[in-house]
Amino acid sequence: MFPDMRGRIEAPIYSGRITPAKWFIRGWQHHLEPLLCLNDVSIRRVDDAWESMLCQFLENPGSRTIRWDLKSSSTLDADDRQEITRYLRRRGLLNQFFAEQRECAQDNEDGSDEADDLNQSTFHNSLPDPKNYEETYEHAEELIEDSSLGVIRGTLRLPRSYETKSTVIMIANNLGNEGWERIYSRLRVFIWDPLVDEQIEDLRAWQPQPRGGILAVIEACHKRGEVLNLDYRAVLDADEALGLGMPWEDELRASFAGPLEERIQEDANSILDWLGEKHANPGTTFTDRDMYQEVGSLRGDKNKARRSAALDYLAEQGWIERFRPPAVLRPGRRGRRPGMTFRVLRTPAE
């Protein structure tokens, strides 16, 4: 997926709740890194600032200019400044950063005598509230870097834009709301949604492999149709707990299905119980109306979505199949197309 990158690579990873302003600051901090990663970030809705920022980072490969939406405020708090300064010093980039700020200030001030002063730079002018950035660090060593060219002093300024060649990837279980479609249309999106069988095979390829007892529980539950969601983190937690001699099985089993999946499975079991009470055999047919009238827990128009979800699940699991009977035309009468009907393929007794 990344032809210019081979093997393992160290990369900054950000996760959790993050704003466009914070991501702009972090991208600026790491703009020389070959790879940046947003892991399972919390973005509840897509606004103009998020759309602009994400598409600038993700839409085009290679060298590009990242610009900030000046309609929104973006700030460097004390922790940001301290972390960024330490990062630049550790990478030997602090001198280079301050020198580039001075050069940019000189270029944009047309060689005026005041251009040497960082307080007159374009970076300073672009700040939402410049007076917040007048402070220097508590300790002078945070702002000084020795080099063969001498000592450079300066204060971190948040630029209006910056150049980067970083490849940016986002990893998330879900992102935002329906507004994300317009962003997806401009990006390269990979969706990984494996079957449980594929996930179990993947577990066997882990090094080290999860303990045999854990794999045995997962496979046994999967054969009974209980594994609707195999969470790798829960498997790792169970493996660690088993190694420490702590309880692990109940928590692992609880991760196999979320509340919605559990309800769907319960409704599906109610339908199977009803078919058992009717002594249904393979080939027996029934309609949604039959189920509507006879399965008490799914009765009523308000449970229409639940009935549909349960029937979809049973069809996916191979218990039933949908079909529409042909219309029966009677002489002299108007024909009527029958509604959707379901045919039993197998029963629990099998």
Would you spell out the secondary-structure blueprint of this structure?
Layout: E1 13-17, H1 20-29, E2 35-42, H2 48-58, E3 64-67, H3 78-90, H4 94-108, H5 122-125, E4 145-147, E5 150-152, E6 161-164, E7 167-171, H6 181-184, H7 196-204, H8 212-223, H9 232-243, H10 249-254, H11 259-277, E8 285-287, H12 288-294, H13 304-316, E9 320-323, E10 341-344
Helix pairs in contact: 7-8, 11-13
What can you tell me about this protein's structure?
By secondary structure, the protein is α/β, with parallel strands linked by helices. It folds into 4 domains: 13-73 and 163-184, no CATH class; 78-157, no CATH class; 196-257; 260-344. 39% of the residues lie in helices and 12% in strands. The chain is built from 13 helices and 10 strands. The strands form 4 sheets. Strands 1-2-7 form a 3-stranded parallel beta sheet, with no helix packed on it. It has a 3-stranded antiparallel beta sheet with strand order 8-10-9. A two-stranded antiparallel sheet has the order 3-6. A hairpin with a 2-residue loop joins strand 4 (145-147) and strand 5 (150-152). The model is unreliable at 110-152 (pLDDT under 50).
Describe the global form: elongated
What count of domains describes the coordinates?
4
Major β-sheet annotation: 3 strands, parallel
> What's the assembly state of these chains?
single chain
Q: How many helices?
A: 13
Instruction: Round the mean pLDDT to the nearest integer and report it.
Output: 76
Helix/strand order: EHEHEHHHEEEEHHHHHHEHHEE
For the largest sheet, list the strands in their spatial order. Answer: 1-2-7
According to DSSP, the number of beta strands is: 10
Low-confidence stretches: 110-152
Content-based structural category:
alpha/beta
Q: Distance N terminus to C terminus?
A: 46 Å
Rg estimate, integer Å: 30 Å
